[in-house]
Specification:
Length: 345
């Protein structure tokens, strides 16, 4: 288990330490649960009571709250970011494998770096390339002519289809499928004729893809995921979707084909996005939004209907059904008011 003194943490993270520099921490925890060997953070004044009572070995907080805690503290203008960096330094997540497991199946035409780790029953097919310090989990398939960049970590039971390109230092979680066929069919008198999907998926550096997420390959052009994109579990990206740098997508969101998304966008849970539209930079959709048209201007957008008591919902739904009749009545009233105003002239 890794451990660091507070002096070492302060030096590595370039933050100010107030307290015992020789105190050792070896883990992270929430402010309410943290013990003397653990680090935590404080970022919201509504948790002041928790700050006063925490048993944490060190708390990361903003300078203006330094007097609110008597124990060891690291001063940071962005406590949550500093906490994230501490969590990385103290991370105990095990490596997926050590070396190449004897049950792994690696085609003679594949290229696997000496420093790569390939887990049990993983498959690396012809022409595939696995770069330095990659970790390929048990049962994962790296398809023909696929490429996995240096330092990338692919958890067990991931399927990377043929020709997919994955950048450096990416993380792909279990059950994800990258490069499956997009939903492309032509209609022949009610009979569906498959259109081969001849594009691929290009993934940049430092991308994370959640468990059981599915990313379709392009129909003609490629599906493109730019550097720094973070994708949660159970997300679906259809063929030819393009995501700009540092965009983040929460679980159960689906983006239909050929939609282009800009940089630094965020999609909360269960957002549904129409195909063939364009989302600009710094656009943010709240949970359950239905995105049916392009949004090119930066901002926050919503369309989900919050849950209410069933009785109220039934009443509102009944009223919505009468909206056309109400609209007609309003138009008649407008005409009548206009007529009366003309009569008064």
């Amino acid at each position: 288990m890794p451990s660091l003194t507070l002096a070492q943490l302060a030096e590595q993270l370039s933050v100010e330490l107030i307290g015992d520099g020789q105190h050792v921490v070896s883990a992270t925890a929430s402010i309410d649960d943290a013990q003397h060997h653990q680090a935590t953070f404080f970022n919201d004044k509504k948790y002041l009571a928790s700050l006063e009572n925490t048993l944490a070995g060190v708390v990361v907080l903003k300078p203006e709250y330094a007097d609110s805690f008597a124990g060891n503290k690291l001063l940071s203008n962005n406590p949550y970011l500093t906490y994230a960096l501490i969590a990385q330094l103290l991370d105990t997540t095990p490596n997926l494998s050590c070396g190449i497991h004897p049950t792994a199946v690696i085609n003679d035409g594949a290229t696997v770096a000496d420093s790569a780790n390939i887990g049990p029953y993983a498959v690396v097919e012809k022409g595939a390339q696995v770069a330095e310090k990659c970790q390929i989990g048990a049962g994962t398939v790296i398809g023909e002519n696929a490429k996995v960049g240096a330092g990338s970590k692919i958890y067990p039971n991931v399927t990377i289809y043929h020709g997919v390109e994955i950048g450096q230092n990416c993380i792909i979680h279990s059950g994800a499928v990258v490069g499956s066929d997009g939903f492309g069919f032509a209609n022949d008198n009610a009979r569906w004729v498959k259109i081969p999907q001849v594009g691929t998926v290009i993934i940049g550096d430092h991308v994370e893809i959640g468990a059981n997420t599915s990313i379709d390959r392009g129909a003609l052009h490629n599906t493109v995921i730019a550097d720094g994109v973070k994708i949660d579990n159970l997300v679906h990206l259809a063929h030819n979707v393009e995501l700009g740098e540092n965009t983040a997508i929460a679980a159960n969101t689906a983006i239909a084909g050929s939609t282009k998304v800009g940089q630094r966008c965020t999609f909360a849970g269960c957002v549904a996005v129409n195909g063939h539209i364009e989302i600009g930079d710094d656009v943010h959709f709240t949970g359950t939004s239905m995105v049916t048209s392009s949004f090119k201007d930066a901002g926050v957008y919503s369309s989900g209907i919050p849950a209410v008591a069933n009785k109220e919902w039934r009443k509102n739904t009944a009223r919505v059904r009468k909206i056309e009749t109400l609209f007609d009545k309003v138009k008649l009233l407008e005409k009548e008011i206009a007529r009366l105003m003309d009569d008064d002239k």
